[in-house]
Write a structure and sequence with these properties.
single chain; mainly alpha; two-stranded antiparallel sheet; 5 helices; elongated
Length: about 150
């Protein structure tokens, strides 16, 4: 196969050179590195409500993790004292029920986060990552307020 167009000036034959993956990128001036991000403290819900995110329940998490590692089915424990879902429902129920998000929707949302809950329990995720993700899912599932009802 012959070339029909001449090469650009200064270009030699062969494939283009690849970037050296070991070459460091020049640092950007006047940028302060971020050590740690502050944890999220609440999630805004439709209608102006705020879902306050609680601190990590360390003892509850340890108890649940031990129960699961002993072979207990975590879905059976939603109604007992060893359940993160029950604990969170007791905290969030006064905020969620008045805006139309009941226990059934809450249980379904907690079940949908089973994998993330497990990752927190085994130490692969931070509590704030789990609870923020759960609150975000709840916020997306909360019934939207009627557009005419807002001023």
């Amino acid at each position: 196969m012959s070339r029909t167009q001449p090469r650009p000036p200064g270009r030699k034959g062969g494939p283009p050179k690849k970037a050296d993956p070991l070459r460091l990128v020049e640092p950007v001036a006047n940028v302060t590195p971020v050590d740690r991000l502050a944890p999220v403290e609440f999630v805004n819900l439709p209608g102006g409500q705020k879902l306050v995110l609680p601190d990590e329940p360390v003892e509850l998490g340890e108890g649940l993790r031990d129960a699961l590692l002993d072979g207990r089915d975590w879905r059976e424990g939603f109604s007992d004292d060893n359940s993160v879902g029950v604990w969170l429902w007791n905290l969030w129920q006064p905020t969620l029920e008045p805006i139309g998000f009941g226990r059934e929707e809450f249980v379904a949302t907690v079940i949908d986060t089973q994998r993330e809950l497990w990752l927190w329990l085994i130490g692969d995720r931070l509590w704030n990552q789990y609870v923020t993700g759960l609150a975000g899912r709840i916020g997306r599932r909360v019934p939207q307020p009627d557009a005419q009802a807002t001023p």
